[in-house]
Amino acid sequence: MKVLPVILAAGQGVRMRSRLPKVLHPLAGRPLIQHALRIVQQVADVPPIVVIGHQADQVRAALDESVRTALQEEQLGTGHAVMSAEALARGQSDLVLITYGDMPLLRPETLRALIEVQKNNRGPLSLLTVEMEDPHGFGRIIRDEEGRVTAIVEEAVATPEQRAIRELNTGVYCIRNEWLWDALRKIQRSPKGEYYLTDLVEIAVSEGLEVQAVCLKDPEEALGINTRVHLAEAEAVLRKRIARHWMEAGVTIIDPASTYIEADVTIGMDTVIYPNTYLRGKTSIGENCVLGPDTIIEDSQIGNHCTVLASVIESSLLEDDIRMGPFCHLRPKAHLAKGVKMGNFGEVKASYLGPGVHMGHFSYIGDAIIGAHTNIGAGTITCNFDGKNKHRTEIGEDAFIGSDTMLVAPVKIGARARTGAGSVVTHDVPDDETVVGVPARPFKKTSQERTPQSE
């Protein structure tokens, strides 16, 4: 049987108190709606449909082009939202799986279990329930004496006996496609002027049809995001899941509670992560690395056997065997080749440091290409900005840049060339030449320096 997911994401999310649509609030580095999509895409046979409404253009822009959208122009309840998808969904599958854009903690295996129950259900509908002591305002599942589901009663209209029920409705359904659309038209408008999917249960029962239920084993999966408090609760749950996943994959996380790893990060085996480390965006970490403490890496690729201590890395590439920190900063488009070492308080931006380069502390390298095995002395600065434009610095292989050298770009330093400490280099330096001074000039030995003095 083919399964078509329909994700309801049209609501305004008033309780978030935000100008941003609720389903676009970030969780573990992704908008809520992206979590919902990735979950259902693992169980779908037909591309999902997202029902959008409030700030529809903004939500649509956050979706992949392959995702289909249906517009709910008026928000008149969950039943009305599903009706908005009829033109795209009717006849496209055997089953319709209905979930929500603000339920990021559902597991694919949970949805597979619900789908499997409906495949074996003689009736048209199966739903996901949860048992919790705190009902969170959810509707109560009503069963008859034989345990069959007969209705869902909303908390606002439930009797005291019904309120005591702890089996709750999550709002997630798997429904036979051919039955759904006609049944939706039988839903009566509520006193609030809305059409509720919960009424489908009573409609099915009134037709003598069986309704099945799957009860969640983990109540955390039922958490929906309605407030920023809920968002923080979901963040804590997802952080634990992500940390557990990587520890089971062979990564050592010294203190998971103080380590933040976003959903799109990948980490190699035998890497060790110390506290207060943040791995964000589309970051990949190689094997046998040591990260942190107090390190932030975002949208970057880190090779094998790298050590990053108390540093910040943004949109950069580190090859294998890098040593850097503490207090280094790689700004976007920094590329460190194999074996580079960076001392404390070094900064690199839009530059390539070749294999084996040693960069001393308190140095800045921007818009530069540094040849292999070059030594960058402490306090070296590439003066790459003239007030209007950025200019490039090029340094050849095996060069030696003395401490406190100012390289005024555009400038080229040849292979094996040297600069004296405190030099200000304003012109190109040929291969094998040494320059010193302000401005730097070729260094010429005096006669005394050329001829050893007699004692």
Automatic annotation (TrEMBL):
It catalyses: alpha-D-glucosamine 1-phosphate + acetyl-CoA = N-acetyl-alpha-D-glucosamine 1-phosphate + CoA + H(+); N-acetyl-alpha-D-glucosamine 1-phosphate + UTP + H(+) = UDP-N-acetyl-alpha-D-glucosamine + diphosphate. Keywords: Acyltransferase, Cell shape, Cell wall biogenesis/degradation, Cytoplasm, Magnesium, Metal-binding, Multifunctional enzyme, Nucleotidyltransferase, Peptidoglycan synthesis, Repeat, Transferase. It is an enzyme of class 2 (transferase). NCBIfam families: glmU (TIGR01173). Its cofactor is Mg(2+). GO terms for biological process: cell morphogenesis; cell wall organization; lipid A biosynthetic process; peptidoglycan biosynthetic process; regulation of cell shape; UDP-N-acetylglucosamine biosynthetic process. Gene3D superfamilies: Hexapeptide repeat proteins (2.160.10.10), Spore Coat Polysaccharide Biosynthesis Protein SpsA, Chain A (3.90.550.10). Binds 1 Mg(2+) ion per subunit. Homotrimer. This is Bifunctional protein GlmU. Residues 433-455 are annotated as: Disordered. In the C-terminal section; belongs to the transferase hexapeptide repeat family. Residues 139-197 form the BRCT domain. UDP-N-acetyl-alpha-D-glucosamine binds at residues 8-11, 22, 72, 77-78, 100-102, 139, 154, 169, 226, 331, 349, 364, 375. The active site is at H361 (proton acceptor). GO terms for molecular function: glucosamine-1-phosphate N-acetyltransferase activity; magnesium ion binding; UDP-N-acetylglucosamine diphosphorylase activity. It comes from Anaerolinea thermophila (strain DSM 14523 / JCM 11388 / NBRC 100420 / UNI-1). Mg(2+) binds at D102, N226. Acetyl-CoA binds at A378, S403, A421. Pathway: Bacterial outer membrane biogenesis; LPS lipid A biosynthesis; Nucleotide-sugar biosynthesis; UDP-N-acetyl-alpha-D-glucosamine biosynthesis; UDP-N-acetyl-alpha-D-glucosamine from N-acetyl-alpha-D-glucosamine 1-phosphate: step 1/1; Nucleotide-sugar biosynthesis; UDP-N-acetyl-alpha-D-glucosamine biosynthesis; N-acetyl-alpha-D-glucosamine 1-phosphate from alpha-D-glucosamine 6-phosphate (route II): step 2/2. PANTHER family: BIFUNCTIONAL PROTEIN GLMU, NUCLEOTIDYL TRANSFERASE. One of its GO terms (cellular component) is membrane. It holds the Pfam family Hexapep. Catalyzes the last two sequential reactions in the de novo biosynthetic pathway for UDP-N-acetylglucosamine (UDP-GlcNAc). The C-terminal domain catalyzes the transfer of acetyl group from acetyl coenzyme A to glucosamine-1-phosphate (GlcN-1-P) to produce N-acetylglucosamine-1-phosphate (GlcNAc-1-P), which is converted into UDP-GlcNAc by the transfer of uridine 5-monophosphate (from uridine 5-triphosphate), a reaction catalyzed by the N-terminal domain. The keyword RNA-binding does not apply.
